[in-house]
Amino acid sequence: MSLHRVSASACITAALTSFLAFSAQTAFAQPRHGERVRDDLDRGRSHRPAELIIQFKATASEADIRRAMSRVQGTVSEEVARKSNRRDRKGDLLSIRTGQGRSLKDAMTQIEADDAVEFVEPNWTYTHQQVANPNDPAMAGTCRAPDAYNGNVPSHCLWGVLSATTSPSNAYGSGALAALGAGAQCSSAVHVGVIDEGVMISHPDLSTNIWVNSRDGTVDRRDNDGNGLIDDINGWNFDGRNRTVYGGSFDDHGSHVAGTIAARANNAAGGFGICPNAKIISAKFLGLLGGSTTNAIAAINYITKLKVDNPTLRIVATNNSWGGGGFSQGLADAIANAGNAGILFVVAAGNSNVNLDAAPSYPASYNLPNMITVAAINSAGSRASFSNYGANSVHIAAPGTNIYSTVPNSRGQAAYSYYAGTSMATPHVTGAVALYASMCPNATAPQIKNAILSAAKVNGNLTGLVQNARQLDLSSFVPGMVCPQ
Ligand SMILES: [Ca+2]
Ligand SMILES: [Ca+2]
Ligand SMILES: [Ca+2]
After folding, report:
1. How crowded is residue 218: how many other Cβ atoms within 10 Å of its Cβ?
2. Cα of 208 from ligand 3 centre, angstroms
3. How many degrees, rounded to 5, is the angle at CA 199 between CA 197 and CA 204?
4. Ligand with minimal distance to 305 CA
5. CA within 20 to 30 Å of 96's CA: 83, 119, 129, 468, which one?
6. 290 C-alpha vs ligand 3 centroid, how far in Å?
7. Separation of alpha carbons 382 and 397, rounded Å
8. Residues within 5 Å of ion ligand 3, judged at the Cβ atom
9. Is the pLDDT of residue 16 over 90?
């Protein structure tokens, strides 16, 4: 119990620090909000047609809200976050459908002019950050039982867990095999949110590592834990608005990501994740048409609330292998609130082969203290040809081509496949966060982020592309390592 108390007070201190840092940033950024979102509209960032997200001031009354919406004949499409449920003292965040016959920019201008409104923005849409896997003959074939830490990991499988000292070796892998082989223990008490498509919770390499929400009891059509969602036993589907986190073969991307974080080890099946006992909480918001900002905010807020309502639930990070949106203050606020609850937001840099320092893309480009933005490298240690980069805005690179992990196949059966993308690099880092949190259970979110970045090694190929030319290296996460006090 005392461990929990120490950890909770440390979290509060860290939360205050990051909250203050974030407040300073918003105070600086706020006046440019309207300009930023208009620029992103001009750049053609995709968004839901005739929909706007409005952040009302905390002082706005119901009458004020109705008046502001009437300026554009707007109707509420979703209550994204109600003032009464918010801990950040902000007002209602609503999405609305605007009346016909006016441009989105014109509607924004009309609403911005209302005294009750803090900001208004489009409902941007996002896609997962997977690309077609480059055809690499060296990676052909099936991995046969590569999931024990005995050095028998075939080099064509799971190169992302290797390092210079493993056999076989790959100096550009994450070092996970070296750490796990040396006795690093991933704790089943550590939880991560997978904000993505759904996750194949029945996959034999994942099923034991799927979170079960005991506080919502059984599927009894009751919201036993009072979080507003009925029977969110393994997570929630914000795209379909139901409790089904796995729908079928189209939930392959989320399943692949989950396996890189936490597929089982030593079960003589498939590969293994970076933290092979961590628990996965599925917050599905990507559907067949991608995902919206409103659903992304709802998914993030769900994970945050789970932890805030139950501080002994050790949620250390969310994995966010999606992007491509315009600037949203509403989404940035949700990420910052997760940070205030001690949750890191690990996010894909994106696959457009652009410099994010010059051409920001969201959520990768929010400059928030609880974010780790991840580029992809290939097995030869070069930036993957598709990966976004940025010496200022990308924190770290990780393996992102020919990544072998858990999927449903086209018939919906449990299988494995090689995928590529910054989508695949990101869960290597999320898994590293979970493993470090396992080894150092009292580490705060800022301490975990600092540890991941400090332990990274320099890869000269990444000079000018990634902060400090960093490449993920968790080979030093071994028993006896020094944890922050
Ligand atoms: Ca519930
Ligand atoms: Ca229930
Ligand atoms: Ca396995």
Report:
1. 10
2. 11
3. 160
4. 1
5. 129
6. 29
7. 10
8. 147, 205, 264, 267, 269-270, 272
9. no
**Residue 234 CA to ligand 2 centre (angstroms):** 11
Whether residue 190 contacts residue 278, with contact meaning beta carbons closer than 8 Å, is answered with: yes
Tokens standing for residue 422: 């910054």
Task: Tell me, in angstroms, the distance from the centre of ligand 3 to residue 408's CA.
Answer: 15
For residue 155, is pLDDT > 80? no
CA dihedral 454, 10, 304, 91 (to 10 degrees): -110
pLDDT tens string 336-367: 999 999 999 999 999 999 999 999 999 999 99
pTM of the predicted structure, to 2 decimals: 0.92
- When computed from its CA atoms, the radius of gyration of the chain, rounded to whole angstroms, is 22
Mean residue pLDDT of the chain comes to 90
Contact yes or no for 364/323 (Cβ under 8 A)? yes
pLDDT at 253 over 70: yes
Percent of the chain at pLDDT above 90?
81
State which fold the 137-471 domain adopts.
Rossmann fold (3.40.50)
Confidence of residue 475 (pLDDT cuts 50, 70, 90): very high
pLDDT in tens, 204-237: 999 999 999 999 989 999 999 999 999 999 999 9
Q: Which ligand is nearest to the CA of 405?
A: 3
Give the start-end residues of each E strand in 257-313: 279-284, 291-292
Residue 17 pLDDT: 43
The pLDDT of residue 7 is 39
Distance from residue 215's CA to the centre of ligand 1 (Å): 8
Taking the CA of 207 as reference, the closest ligand is 3
The predicted structure's pLDDT at residue 485: 84
- Asked if pLDDT for residue 11 goes beyond 90, the answer is no
Ligand in nearest proximity to the CA of 262: 3
Kindly give the distance from the C-alpha atom of residue 168 to the centroid of ligand 3, in angstroms, as a whole number: 18
How far, in Å, is the centroid of ligand 3 from the Cα of 157? Answer: 12
- Residues with a known catalytic role: 196, 253, 423
- Please write down the long-range contacts of 149-155, taking CB distance under 8 Å and 24 or more positions apart: 149/177, 149/180, 149/181, 149/265, 149/266, 150/181, 151/181, 153/177
Beta strands in 86-176 (DSSP E): 93-97, 117-128
What CATH code would you report for 45-125?
3.30.70.80
Measured in Å, residue 205 CA sits from the centre of ligand 3 at 5
Residue 443 pLDDT > 90: yes
Beta bridge partners of 75: 97
Q: Where are the domains of the chain?
A: 45-125, 137-471
